[in-house]
């Protein structure tokens, strides 16, 4: 736990020095044209690596930073996610669909406010708050969030997670019952994104150590419009095409 807080503090101090933070109060009604956000991702047994998130009023793009040719693109107008693989020269799409599915077991969801990080620099006048999320008494996820920070980005994140959660319901019943886990089910399928109601997550981590830390953000970013274009000469197919056996060799 101390290592996680150390990462939070170092990130916040770096943001302050870089000028990414603003001491003014956030304006929830202010619509940003575009935002660029840099994260440091953490995974077990893997050296931390940087990722980038770009959000406009129409798109959200995930990639590995400047020059990335493989990326995830979320079209917010059509509720469609595209996965662009430069190595395979493929574009796989996933369109939102509402699936009515109840969890196979009762999920008792709980969250705890563990308090503000009083020693941390404020971001846009707000002090980060640490929350912990539980499912059936088990700790699932920790988040340090800032309420009111980049609300449109938070909305885009929630919409993106909802599409993935709805898709997971399509194949959920194919999972053996002995693999059902309350935390996994709540985070990926039945209560995904519940932490986002507390604001933008500047630090988040799961019990296995996977997570991400905010490094910097730019609310005046002007992206190249081509970042939101899909390569026409790649092979295009949908997740449904794969499940229906219409794509041979996994899309190659």
Provide a descriptive summary of the structure in words.
It is a single chain. The protein is α+β, with helices and mostly antiparallel strands and 252 residues long. It has a single domain (2-251), classed as outer membrane lipoprotein receptor (LolB), chain A, CATH 2.50.20. 21% of the residues lie in helices and 34% in strands. It contains four helices and twelve strands. It has helices spanning 2-18, 151-171, 182-190, 239-243; strands at residues 34-43, 46-56, 59-63, 71-75, 80-85, 90-95, 109-116, 129-135, 138-146, 200-206, 211-218, 235-238. The chain has a twelve-stranded mixed beta sheet. β8 (129-135) and β9 form a beta hairpin. The radius of gyration is 19 Å and the shape is globular. It starts with a helix and ends in a 9-residue tail after the last helix.
